[in-house]
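Justification of computing resources. Each target in the renewal requires a structure prediction run like the one illustrated here; the chain below, 420 residues long, is used simply to show the kind of job we budget for.
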Amino acid sequence: MNLKKLAVVFSIVALALVLSSIVSSGNKTQAAVTCSVPTLAYPTIQSAASDPGCTQIDVAPGAYNETVVVNFPTTINGAQVGNNDFVTRSANPAGESTVNGSNPTASVGVFTINATNVTINGFTVKHTVTIGAAMGITVTGSGSNSTIVNNIFDTIVSPDTGSQGTAQAIYLTAGGPDNVKIENNEMKNVHSNRSAKGILVGDNGGPNPSQNVQVKGNSIHDITSDTRGAYGLSVANVTNVSGLQVLNNNIDNLTGGGWAHAIGLEGDTPGVIVTGNCISDIVDLTVSLPEDSLAVFFEANPSFGSAEVHQNNFTNVSYGIAVHPALVSAFPASLVDGENNWWGSASGPGPVGPGTGAKVSPGVDYTPWLLFPAAGGACGMAEATNKDQCKNGGWQTVVRANGSPFKNQGDCIQYANTGK
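Resulting C-alpha cells:
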C-alpha cells in the first residue's frame, strides 16, 4: 500500500473514532464527556450537574454537603458504582461518596431529577431536616426513564409534627415520571412523625400517574413513623399507576404509630405484579381490629382483581394480603390472584383460609399456597441444580423447587441429578 492510500486509511479510522465519541441529544450532538468531582473545574457535584456537557459524572469518595438538581440527561456515579454489597459498604464509610442534603428547611430531595435518562449509581444519601419533609432522591414528572441503582439511603429523618413532616428515601412526584427503575438499593433508618416510606409513588389525588415503574432487588428496613403509617412502598391514592412491578425485594422491620404496610397499593394499580418479595416484622403500635400490620394491601384500588401476587414470603405480619372491605363490597366478583405464597405456616392463611399462618382477607384467591418458604426471591434459598452444591454441608443451604428441604447430602444429590 502506498503512502497516500495509507494516509487515507488513517484518516478514515480517525474520523470513525471521532464519530464514535459523538452522542445525539435532541436535535443537537455533543461529545461524550466524563467529568470528575472534586476537581478544579468541578469542585462539587452540582457544578458538574450544571454543565450539560458532562454526559457522565464520576464522584470520588468523600462527604458532599450539598443539594443536587439535575436538569439534563446524564449518569452520576458514586465511588461504589455497581456495588450492592451493602454489608461490606456500610463497614467502610470512608469508601463512600456520601451526599448530605444541605437544605434542612425545604422539602427537597438530596438529588432532584428534572430530566429524562438520568442514572444515579453507587452513592450513600443522607438527609436530616429540621422542618418539612425529608427526601433522598426526588424524581419529578420530567424524570422519565431514570434509574436509581446501588445506592444506600441511610438516615432520612424529619421531626416535624406538622402536615409536611414526612420522610421518604425515594419520591416519584405527582407529575408522573414513567419507566423509572429502582433497583438494588438499601433504604434504612427512614423516620418521621407522620408517614415514613422507603418509596413513595405519587401524591393523593395527583395528576398524571407514573407508568411502568420497576422496584426490584431492594432492601428496605427500619422504617418508622411515630404517629401514622410506615411503608416499604406506598402508591398514593391516584388513578392508573399501570405496569408496576415489585420484584424480589426484602422489606422488614417497619414500625407504624398508626399502621404499617410493607406494600401499600392505596391507588389504582392495573396489572400490578408483586413477586418474590420477603416481607417480615411489620408492626403496628396501635390496637385495632382488624389488625393493620399488612404485607400487601389494596385500599382505594378498583383494579385489585388484575393483581398478580406470587412466591412471596409473609412472616410476622397480621395479614399477608388484604383487600379493603369497601372494595370487596363494590367488586364482589374480583379476586387478587394470590396463589403460591408462603404464609408462615404449611397450613396456609387464616382466618378466611383454613390455616394458622398470616391472615388473608376476602377478595383474594389464596389457593394453592406454598408448604415451605418460597425458594429464590429476596429471602428464599436457591434450588439445588448440581451435586457439588450438596457437598460439605451445602445440602442444608439449598432446597427443592417447591422450597422443601433435604434430609441429607444423598437426598440432595439425588434431586440435583434426577429432579426427584
